[in-house]
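My convention is simple: the sequence line spells out the residues, with the fold written below as integer tokens. I include a record here:
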Amino acid sequence: MSITPEDIKRVKGEGFLLNRGTQCFSGRIITENGTLTAGQLICLGEAAREYGSGTVAFTTRMTVEVPGIPYESIPAFQSYIAREGMVTGGTGARVRPVTSCKGTTCVFGLYDTQALARELHQRFYEGCHSLTLPHKFKIAVGGCPNNCVKPELNDLGLVGQRVPQYKPELCRGCKKCQVAEACPMKAATLPQGEKMALDAARCNHCGRCASACPFGALACGETRYKVYVGGRWGKEIRIGTPLSTLVAREEVPAVVERAILLFQREGLPGERFGSTVERLGMARVEAELLGSPARG
């Protein structure tokens, strides 16, 4: 069977990528944050054995690909995985599937990353699926400053933060400071004969010092979010630029939406969001994302 360039382009839009040197394709299955049910995993294995090469590959963004699917078997493969509610996709110049770390269960996670990522996935990947952008737009949700899911290398990345609040009047200058012991960044120190000193510039807001002081000299408030914009990896790497202020949980969806709409409105064809950010200037981008567009 002869496969035309139009055929290849059409099925790519459905999440099927041509395997080099063959007439077979890898089917990309959408997962929410790299999570599948046991039933979905079984179904996927059966589909890989029946229609593909018999193997399953995991992508860097926690989706799943089944390689070796013949062109003529694509509809049957899609129907088979639909039994367990799975679909293919995740390609093209649009919002890509949202990915997150395992902060929901990780001992270092500062909030329920899976819940936030699921909300963003449903609202922006599924809800904006028909929205054409200048290029792909990737979103990553990180639970803490460990940055396991590389939020700063995505078009928009979120990192959970807990900012310590120090009350020096409650510090007793203990010979062995529990806060200093708990801090992995060595931002808390205890100068000999003095009260604890906290280096705010060194602190990365990981929250591990929360409740460490038995006298209540230091506590951490609610989780807030550091927002990186314009990151990317690949042939050209750009570390995302952080907004100058942390964002509250209720503000996160609005910030993400403004970033996507700004990219749609101001991005040039074929341009990644990082290039748009550099071209417009971070001052304007930040004003737009925080809901106070710059004038003039």
